[in-house]
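Reviewers of the previous submission asked for a worked example of the structure-prediction workflow described in the proposal, so we include one complete record here. The input consisted solely of the amino acid sequence. No template or homolog information was supplied to the procedure at any stage.
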Amino acid sequence: MKAIIRKELADHFSSTRFLIIVSLIFMISFLGAHLASQGIREALKVGGHEYLAGRVFLMIFTASGGFFPLTVFLALFGPLLGLVLGFDAINRERSQGTLSKILSQPIYRDEVILGKYLAGLITVAITLSALMILLGALGLIGAGVIPTAEEGLRLFGFWLLTMVYIGFWLGLAIVFSIIFRSVATSALASAALWIMIAFFLPVLGQAVAQVVTPAVDAQRPTYRELADRHLVNQLVAKVSPTGLYNQAAQVLLDPTNRGGSQAFQMAVSSRVNQLLLSHFRGGLSLGQSLALMTPEFLILAGFTLATFIASFLTFVRQEVRSI
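From that input alone, the workflow returned the following structure tokens.
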């Protein structure tokens, strides 16, 4: 298995498509972090140090700055990294005639599939670590802020969460590479499922929320109706890995986020609720944020484990002659 991991790592880091995808991710992330750091610097000049205390450095990864925040960008386009690494993991070996040669050696099929999956995870870990370190350095230079110990732990948790999220798409792509013998078919199936989950499922959630909780006055829905819609939308997002990742990342990287904060912020227009909101302006501790994001993280980890088990069982149960 170690030989397979070394071989796969060499193939990944010398692959042209991998270098292109990583270059695009790095360039767009750098642009978003640069714009976010400029916005943070301007905000610190104006004031609000007490409100931003404990999360200034994290805002490099969460602030938009007129562009995608890093969390939203990785939620939408981070899956491409996992799909690129896995959509031809098995059928490429079949088409080249090397899979049967590998299995004719004293190498078991479980070692082959484990080696390919672990090599993909190691590649994702190296890429993601380099990206976050470089973005952190850019934030130090651009915004002039130094991360606290708690912010460092939150970023490590975000790194682990992103690893689990991209690992789901890696396992899904490997499943398609086992099922379909054509590389083009597995690539199209992976891309179609990514587009449906990342872009169409949120729209479906909003449509379901409007049908389940119709408003008496469509032009002026009440706070109760908006809160009910938001709850239904959040429940629909529980079946989407992208929705789970978004919810967990926002809670982890924003100490002021309390899970259902969007529905909670709808109460600002009321004076009574304004008083309630002023009572909760303090940020959450790391332990409280971890407690809030644990359900989403566990469901996402379950999805990732399911895709890996599906790829493992599908590959090891295939007939040798069909391989």
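The chain is about 75% helix and 0% strand. We consider this example representative of the routine output the project will generate in years two and three.
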